[in-house]
Please model this.
Amino acid sequence: MGKWFTRILPACAAACLLWPTAALAGELAGTEIAARAFAVNEGRDGAQRLTYTIKVRDRPDTVLRFAMLWKRYPVGGRFQTKVLMFPEFPPSMKGVAYLGHITWMGGGRADDEWIYLPDLRAVRRLSHKRHSHHDSGDDPFIHSELKHGDLTPRPPELDWHTLIGTDTIGGIGHYVLESTPKVADPRFPYARTVRWITRDGFLPVRVDFHSGPSAVKQVEITWRRVGAGWGWEKVTAFNRVTGNETVLSVEHAWVDRDLPESTFGERAMRAGPGRYFK
Model:
């Protein structure tokens, strides 16, 4: 998954009228809400099966399925996440494996990425000079609305955060938080985001991405309990300009087994996912 197989940023909900800013006295500050949302417990590591349904106007839907292993790392280190992905559908992609050591957003470092090609029995490092996200003609995610900048969680200190309202959706209270990047970042091509975050668990359930005055994309999510924390169950991204949509469904196999570092190396790429999904 080159830049195309990164961790999936959550978001979901229907919009209601917002309370005016004047009614926010006594609420948490925007920076604290952003920090708590970033710190939601989603597990240390885990195994998932992912199904992407990519819907493009006037084209048949594209369905892609993957088995994925992942491991998160503490703030301040070189890597934010390591992921190992194995395509399971379409059949033409079986046997391929992708390994990504994903760096922190805003850190100025490129991700380390490799791909295993079974026909050549070779692991090759992906070059960032020729492999920028969603620009390759053979990239199965070229039409996906779930792109790198949409999905990778941004450390809260990269943005200015303002609580602009509160909302109630389905009887559940939400903060409505506007975030604006402090410094331009080519990996995040948006002027600002507006997020709906649950008041009780600080779960981001909807993100509107703005390139100008209006939102160009809306990402929604439903969450479910996974182990002692939370995990994404369904993520939907809708492009308000093109009308295209991408839906991600997530099936959780397990979390928090303390995967060793050897899981995210060349030998594991060649071995396939079988031993982790029994």
Notes: The two ends are 23 Å apart (CA to CA).
